[in-house]
Amino acid sequence: MRLLLSTTWKYIRRNPGLSLATIIIISITFSIGTILFLLNLFATQTVNYLQNQPTISIFYDQREKEESIIAFKTFLEGQKGITKVTFSSSTQIQQDYLNSIGINPEQQGQYSFDDYAIRILRLQVEPNTDYKYFLQLIESEKSKGALISQIVFIQEIVDKIREFSNTVRIGGTLVTVFLVAMSLLLIYLTIGFTINRFSQEIDIMQLVGAESKVIMLPFTLQGAFYGVVATLVSYIVMLVLWFSTVFFLGNIQNNTLFAFIKNIVSEVGLGSLFTFSLVHVLFGVILVTLGLVIGISCSYVATKRYIKV
Amino acid sequence: MLQVSDISKIYTTNNTIVPVLRNINFTLDKGDFVFLTGASGAGKTTLLKLLILQEYPSKGSIMFEDVNIEKLQKKLVPLYRRTLGVVFQDYKLLENKTVFENISFVLEILDKKQSEIKNTVMQLLELVKLTDRADLFPKQLSGGEKRRVVIARAIANNPKLLIADEPTGDLDPDNTDRIVEILKKINSAGTSVIMTTHNVDLLDRYPQYKRWHLDAGELIEGKDPKRDTKFIDKLKNILTPELFEKITFIAPRSKQDLLSVTPLFLRHYLKLTDKQLSELVKKAKDL
């Protein structure tokens, strides 16, 4: 074992430039791959989240009576294709908004709203249901004299995000496949180069009767080393950058944009990303395992190709 | 200990068949010391390569202590090689390792204990009289010293057979004598030695040792006269001229010898067509 490890280390040490280049390129590959994966995850989660949210929001004028709104709510609940209809009073809307931008409940009393009497009726439509029919129902209610000031429907937003998600998925897959192929090729060539460089040593080893595992294992370990170190570097750099950014932005006074983004990310089920948890550890383990598998398999193929036993 | 029977070696380059060795036969007993001579290109190095399984014979067999080594499974080849010591014509010393490390390297990869390695290397350095050169690198040594390091490395694992390819080729008479004296010492300890050389004076100075001479791929001494030398003539009478011409490259000595050649070899190296192959097998069996 000592001999295996010392031989492996010798092969790495004698190719410092190539070893470093291999590690850096694999690190970049894994970092880009991880970012694309997280973007795709976020987009997918957002689509799932939005699909479970009210798809049509009806904003009422402050002069509209609450009884009329409730009556229309009951009418809508009786329609086929509607999952849920919720009514939000103006107080609830104000609280929700202040919460979403990170204002503490005890400070919320300091804020006042111009349209303080705004009320919203939210309709959640079953997936794959044509929401235009419900828009017609609302328009017809409006024509009957209902004081509806605005109708907002988010189906288009969902479609746009889905489109974005698909683009990220396809583009990300292509970019990741290309970068992984480059990494594989790089490990393969690095191992091949090392084998060529040590060909005389390998020749002697073979002629004095060294077992093939003694000859080949150091190269396999060399590939494993590149894979593990590169993914570890990628993981640590990304983790440090992520938490530094979160820490920095979180400490800026009245940063409503960051609070809003944080709120959205949490809403779509990715809130655990903001504090170091088991998810991060698990992600690191998966990343390093992936690096290990890629390193070992690639160097194994190179060893089989370049060393004739 | 070593029995070589009817081995031939053929190389094919650009559809040209080059026979390098033809029907080599010899027996080497434990404790034998043999000088193998021959002009450049006579096949000396090829023969040694066959013995260390760096190359495989086109036909024939090599028995080492009753084991047919050319049929050895790949995973057993390292075990066989551990019974041999090889002194390479081109030294094959690792330039980045000291004399001590070049020798200990062999023992390390054979997984010997550190204490054993140190003792063995010191003993070997003493045998080849290089104790004071242990910490030097190959480029700091003379040709004779390098050769002695290679010998020390070759016998590090206490081989049964030492194969030395031109170990005195580039040395002056003093160094040549020193090398042969070392090989004699190794031989007297029970290790058989095959040494290739161009040096005729050396043969005269050591008449007690066996001499084999390779001439255009044929071993002149050590030939077995009892073999059927007429077999090739029989083939000439029964095969078509085109097929016979191809078969002469392997010059089979007997029916058994001919049938030991694999169809794959006949197709690939001698470029026999399927028709010629079946003709050959049929006629050879009828002989």
Low-confidence stretches of chain A: none
Biggest sheet statistics of chain A = 4 strands, antiparallel
Distance between the termini of chain B: 33 Å
Which bin fits the share of residues in helices of chain A?
Answer: over 70%
How many DSSP-defined strands of chain B? 10
Total number of beta strands of chain A: 4
Order of neighbouring strands in the sheet with most strands of chain B: 6-7-8-3-9-10
Please give the count of helices of chain A.
10
Based on secondary structure, the structural category of chain A is alpha+beta
Quick one: which chains have the greatest interface?
A-B, 15 and 23 residues
Task: Average the pLDDT over all residues of chain B and give the rounded result.
Answer: 85
Write the layout of secondary structure elements.
The complex is a heterodimer of chains A (309) and B (287).
Chain A: H1 2-13, H2 16-51, E1 56-60, H3 66-77, E2 82-88, H4 90-100, E3 119-125, H5 132-143, E4 148-153, H6 155-197, H7 199-207, H8 212-250, H9 256-270, H10 278-306
Helix pairs in contact in A: 1-8, 2-6, 2-8, 2-9, 6-8, 6-10, 8-10
Chain B: E1 2-13, E2 16-28, E3 33-38, H1 44-51, E4 59-64, E5 67-68, H2 77-81, E6 84-87, H3 99-109, H4 114-127, H5 143-154, E7 161-164, H6 173-188, E8 192-196, H7 200-205, E9 210-215, E10 218-219, H8 231-238, H9 241-247, H10 255-259, H11 263-268, H12 274-286
Highlighted features:
heterodimer, A: 309 residues, alpha+beta, four-stranded antiparallel beta sheet, B: 287 residues, alpha/beta, Rossmann fold, 12 helices, 10 strands, elongated
3D structure, described in words:
The complex is a heterodimer of chains A (309) and B (287). Chain A is built from ten helices and four strands; from the N terminus they run ααβαβαβαβααααα. Chain A has helices spanning 2-13, 16-51, 66-77, 90-100, 132-143, 155-197, 199-207, 212-250, 256-270, 278-306; strands at residues 56-60, 82-88, 119-125, 148-153. In chain A, strands 2-3-1-4 form a four-stranded antiparallel beta sheet. Chain A is elongated. Chain A starts with a helix and ends with a helix. Chain B has twelve helices and ten strands. In chain B, the strands form two sheets. In chain B, strands 6-7-8-3-9-10 form a six-stranded mixed beta sheet, with helices on both faces. Mean pLDDT of chain B is 85; it is low at 222-227. The chains are: A alpha+beta (309), B alpha/beta (287). At the A-B interface, α7 of A face α2 and α3 of B.
